[in-house]
Amino acid sequence: MLNPRKSILLALGSNLTSSAGSPDETLRAALHRLEKLGAAIRAVSTFYSTPAFPEGNGPDFVNAAVDISADWSAQETLAICHQIEAEMGRERAQRWGQRTLDLDLIAYGDVVLPDAKTHVEWRNLAPDRQISRTPSELILPHPRMQDRAFVLVPLADVAPDWKHPLLGQTVIQMRDALNPADIKAVVALE
Questions:
Q1: I want to staple 5 with a disulfide (CB 3.0 to 4.6 A). Which of 35, 69, 108, 178 is the partner?
Q2: Does the residue 124 lie in any domain?
Q3: For the chain (length 190 residues), average pLDDT per consecutive 10?
Q4: Are 159 and 64 in contact (CB under 8 A)?
Q5: What are phi and psi of 104, to 5 degrees?
Q6: Residue 157 annotated among the catalytic residues of the structure
Q7: Is residue 2 part of a domain?
Q8: CA 119 to chain CA mean position, Å
Q9: Is residue 172 part of a domain?
Q10: What CATH number is attached to the domain comprising 122?
């Protein structure tokens, strides 16, 4: 018997023009590329305008979220995301810098990688250390998803009831626990 295809949650962001065009055109091109590479798109969020993170770090972003299924492992999914980013001209010169495309693997079903202890360490990493440290292995669910309105607001469009396997909260609960001003800053594009 085959395993059912996992629900894979991705966050998309762009605040620079790419070969595909404007940030919103870049996100659409990335979604198309995911399909070409074998992903089935289950749901795509509204596209949102969000302030650059950290504050003052360039032009506003266009952010979205997508729920896909694919016959990829978590590591293969990450590699495909990096491949698509590179195709769109992404350069990894500065952590949390401006970018043509950012595809973040937020969750791979309810999988916790590499283990709960390591996940807690990365989730609790002080903000000033987050910018200078990069994990050497894939951490899932994304260790800072619960802190970011630009992830949770779009994610609530596509997976409102997905429950964080370690925090025990749904996307909606995590979103609603954020500072209301942060949520309000995530504005739907028309």
A1: 69
A2: yes
A3: 69 94 96 97 97 79 97 96 91 64 96 95 81 81 95 98 97 98 94
A4: no
A5: -105, 130
A6: no
A7: no
A8: 17
A9: yes
A10: 3.30.70.560
Assigned token pair, 175: 């979103």
Closest CA to 142 of 77, 83, 85: 77
Q: In this structure, what token pair is assigned to residue 89? A: 């001209």
Question: What are the CA-CA distances from residue 111 to residues 30, 108, 121, 122 (Å)?
Answer: 24, 6, 17, 16
Catalytic residue among 102, 123, 148, 157: 102
pLDDT given for residue 94 in this prediction: 53
Q: Is 124 helix (H, G, I), strand (E, B) or coil?
A: coil
Q: What is the pLDDT of residue 112?
A: 97
Q: How many domains does the chain have?
A: 1
Q: How many other C-beta atoms are found inside a 10 Å radius of the C-beta of residue 83?
A: 13
Collapsing DSSP to helix, strand or coil, 13 comes out as strand
Each residue's pLDDT tens digit, 64-76: 999 999 999 999 9
**65 in helix, strand or coil?**
strand
For the record, the structure tokens of 32 come out as 């198309």
Whether residue 33 lies in the annotated active site:
no
Give the range of the structural domain holding residue 174, as residue numbers without chain letter: 7-188
Q: Provide the Cα torsion 132, 52, 174, 26; round to 10°.
A: -100
